[in-house]
Amino acid sequence: MRKGETLYSLSRRYDVPLRTLVAANGLKSPYTLAVGQRLSVPSARVHTVAKGETGYSISRRYGVTVSALMQENQIRPPYTLAIGQTLRLPGGAGGGVTTASVNPTVVTSTPNRGRSVPRATPPPRSSSGFDWPVSGKLASRYGPKQDGLHNDGINIIARQGTPVKASDAGVVVYASNALQGYGNLLLVKHSGGWITAYAHNERLLVRQGQQVTKGQVIARVGNTGGVSEPQLHFEIRKGRQALDPLRYLQRMSAAASP
After folding, report:
1. Which residue from 187, 219, 218, 216 is spatially nearest to 203, judged by alpha carbons?
2. Which of 35, 106, 110, 137 has a beta carbon 3.0–4.6 Å from 157's, enabling a disulfide?
3. Number of neighbouring beta carbons within 10 Å of residue 191
4. Residue 15: what pLDDT?
5. For a pLDDT cut of 70, what percent of the chain falls above it?
């Protein structure tokens, strides 16, 4: 820090959002700085919109919410994007870290968001295909939604604490609440490049790296993340591509919405 500098002037100099500086350095209000203090300055990150991308898919890629991404770029609903458009990524999207002049005795680091995935070989899938992970009312289907959003899966309303079952045999490759908006989230990898996702859970009953069997209880329905009513957000993916779960689920155990 130089004499007369403030967080605002640093954010302008390094083209980094003010809230990103605050979060990266664990600063508390009123954000008093000292001459010679060292600050970690996350590098500004941008994304260039490609064909077929939406605000929702971009936000998922970087682990931020759609609202945070659009607010960062001053884009209003219906959040229309153009191919080739450059978007600034908000704080929390990850990226490298540079260092501004600060106290040399202070060591800074980038927080671990808990996204490492173990190299594990999932067991063979069952011949009967994917099963419904929970019984309940189908509240939201796969596909485009209002305000330019897109549901990459389905949402099933169920009672708080209802058992969530593994849709097929696999290996847990993610078990955390670090991904903004999804609360307690599980990702299960299946053979053949398939992945199922289970979000908004009250509790996670398995850990990363654990092998699970089809029908095993792996979590409990909750309302963590960006929802207010107990429900399960469920996705089926082939590689990085999200698919409509209703095309792949074998047994209808949830009541379809109108």
Report:
1. 219
2. 137
3. 14
4. 62
5. 72
Question: What is the DSSP annotation of 189-255?
Answer: EETTTEEEEEEEEEEE-S-TT-EE-TT-EEEEEB--SS-SS-EEEEEEEETTEEE-GGGTBSS--EE
Sort strands 154-157 and 136-140 into parallel, antiparallel or unpaired.
Answer: antiparallel
Q: Please, what's the b/e burial string for 212-248 (b: 16 or more CB within 10 A of its CB; e: otherwise)?
A: bebebebbbbbebbebeebbbbbbbbeeeebebbeee
127 contacts: CB under 8 Å, gap ≥ 6: none
Measured between alpha carbons, how far is 155 from 245 in angstroms, rounded to an integer? 10
- DSSP 8-state code for residue 140: E
Among the listed residues 137, 168, 173, 176, the one whose alpha carbon sits nearest the alpha carbon of residue 236: 168
Q: What is the mean pLDDT of residues 139-153?
A: 82
Encode 49-80: b = buried (16+ Cβ within 10 Å), e = exposed.
beeebbbbbbbbebbbbbbbbbebbebeeebe
DSSP state letters, 6-52: -HHHHHHHHT--HHHHHHHHT--TT----TT--EEEEPP-EEEPPTT
Mean pLDDT computed over 33-41: 73
Residues 203-214 have pLDDT tens digits of 999 998 899 999
